[in-house]
Amino acid sequence: MKNDFRMQYPLWMMGFIVVLGMFAYGVSSPATEIVNTETVQSISIELGPIAGFFAVGAAALYILLLAGFIFQLTRHNRKNPTQKVSAFSIRPPEYLEQDEGMTYITRKASQKVYTFMSWSLPMLAVFAIFSPLPNLFTVWGILLIALIQYLIYYLEIRKHFKEETE
Amino acid sequence: MLKNRVKELRARYGFTQSDLGKQVDVTRQTIAFIEKGEFSPSITLSLKLAKALQTNVNELFWLEEDSNEK
Predict the structure, then answer these.
(1) What is the domain range of residue A89?
(2) Is the ipTM of this complex over 0.90?
(3) Is A100 close to B42, i.e. CB distance below 8 A?
(4) Domain total for chain B?
(5) Is there a contact between B33 and A104 if contact means CB atoms under 8 Å apart?
(6) Distance between CA atoms of A27 and A25, rounded to whole angstroms?
C-alpha cells in the first residue's frame, strides 16, 4: 500500500509544483522588445542568463518528471485494473476509498487540507491586494499553498500507514 | 471509547489481517485501523467481522466505561 501510486500522487504533484515555480521565475522577467513600424513588425523576448537557465531547465525537468509520472501511472493501471487512475480526472486520484477504513483516513486528511485552505487562501488574497511585490510573488504564493496542501495530505495518510502493523 | 477483540480473535483463528480483510471485503489496512481503535467500523462491517470471527458483535466490540460512571 505504501507503494501505491495513489499514495505517492501528492509527491508527484509537489514535484510538478516546484518545477512550475522555477519556470515562473524563468519566464517572469524577460526583457521584451516590441518593434512595430510600417516596414518591420517584431517581438523579441530576451531571457537573462539566470532566468533563461531556470526557464529552459524547468521545461527540461518538467518533461523528465512527466515521463516518470506517465510511466508510474501506466504501471499502476496495469497492476490495478479495477482501481485505475486517470490523470485528467476531476476527482483527486489520491483519494483512497476502497472501503470504509480508507474513506475514513481520506476524510481526515481532506479535513486537514480544508482547514489549511480556509485560512491560507484569504491570507494570500490580502497579500496579493496590498503587496507592492511583483506578480511573481503572488504566483509563488499560490504554488506554495498548493505544495503545502499536498504535503499535509501526504503526511496525514502516511502517518496512518506508518503506524499500521500486521 | 470503542474497544475490540479483533486482534485477539484473529490470532486465535490464525488469520492474518489480509485473510480477515478478504473475508469481510476490506483492505488489510482497515483491519489494522480497527484493531488499533483508530477507526470505528460501521454496523455492517462489525456484523461481518463478528461472523468471520465466529462471535457476536457484543463480544467483539464494547464501549470502555468511563471511570466516573462506576
Answers:
(1) 5-163
(2) no
(3) yes
(4) 1
(5) yes
(6) 6
